[in-house]
Amino acid sequence: MNCKEPSLDMNWQDQRQELVDTMRKLDQLGMVSGSSGNASVRLPASGTQKKLFLVTPAGVSYDTLTAEQIVLVDDDMNPVGNTAESPTSEALLHKAVYDQRRDVEAIIHTHSVYASVQAVKAEAIPPIIDEMVVYIGGTIEVSEYGFPGTPELAENSLKALGDKRAAIIRNHGMFAVADTLKESLRVAELVERVAKIYVNAKMSGTIIPVPDHAVEAEREMYLTRTGLKLT
Ligand SMILES: [Zn+2]
User: Fold this and answer.
1) Cα–Cα distance for residue pair 14/19, rounded to 1 Å
2) 98 vs 7, which has greater pLDDT?
């Protein structure tokens, strides 16, 4: 066996299957539909090994998606090895986040409805629920507009993300990041739930945000649990 590129020799079956299961779950939750949205995971690399990622393919419906259709890409998001599929059209967004955020190992992008309401209104979601500060990092910002699939969308999204775990992409959707795919899914679900609460609360009355002193304490908790706090 040629062991020059150990990562390329590996199948990464578990990680591929986890991506398939994650997209199916998002589909069941109504957070993606057809082939919209996407996800990726960073693969462990050491020494001189190339940086590699697994990403969902472009244009494959989630009800038929298989582990074999997940695309292995290099750190320029170009497919490597034998694959019939192309990586998601938003691969540049994934690359931009992995390049900038060493703490991020998995990314989920959805077109979920309530986050998209905020994307259409270009309105950030302030800290209205304690949980969102602890797990997302605070206000969920909205990016400047960028055309789908372009470096501009990737750059603007990264800017809106900052050091947090989610951001809304203007006129498009949202994305969530974390150290595992499972945690990214949890963050994505939380973003959608918070957006739903915000939209409904805004329609029915005055919104009372989380008090500043609590946001400050919760932000510290976020920075500590994500390892982003420099000690
Ligand atoms: Zn999208």
Assistant:
1) 9
2) 98
